[in-house]
Amino acid sequence: MSACLWPGKNQLMKEYHDNEWCVPSHDDSYIFEMLILEGAQSGLSWNIVLSKREDYQRAFHNFDITYCSMLSDEKLEGIKDQYNVIKHLSKLKAVRSNAKEVIKIQSEFGSFSNFLWRYVDFKPVINHWESDGDIPAQTTLSEQISKDLKQRNFKFVGPVIIYSFMQAIGMVDDHIRTCPHHFKNR
């Protein structure tokens, strides 16, 4: 069986591919973490973001949504200066604003997970791609979720980011058909 090629020989990327990518998650903290990390990736490589993940986890108290929603501008500036995170201040401020929006969604839908997973009837979309090159950068569904999140004032949630996010939390399984981690091969 041949696995997805995109992780290459990079151990961090391989571990992410093998253990997290396209694995369904309903944990709001993890989902929030992936939303923030995917947004931080905008314009950068996933490898860069993964290499900074532990610092993100420390800086944002393991992506505690309530904690993140209450961060002051001064605290965000301190995080920018003291932690090995992406130094883009708008991306850091998005942690706070997106956390506030997640809290609103949790009160409306019971969880952030419920809000998101309803788009796929609470079942992952299982794709059967032949090669990494077949995997789309965005879909009609990621465009719809992006639009809906933007209407709710989320930041860094374009359709390409949202498609990567959907892969990250397992709403879609985009492992190539022959990958040992594809749903049908597990």
From TrEMBL:
One of its GO terms (molecular function) is DNA-3-methyladenine glycosylase activity. One of its GO terms (biological process) is base-excision repair. Keywords: Glycosidase, Hydrolase, Metal-binding, Zinc. It is an enzyme of class 3 (hydrolase). Zn(2+) binds at residues 4, 17, 175, 179. Its EC number is 3.2.2.20. This is DNA-3-methyladenine glycosylase 1. It comes from Desulfosporosinus acididurans. The lineage of its organism: Bacteria, Bacillati, Bacillota, Clostridia, Eubacteriales.
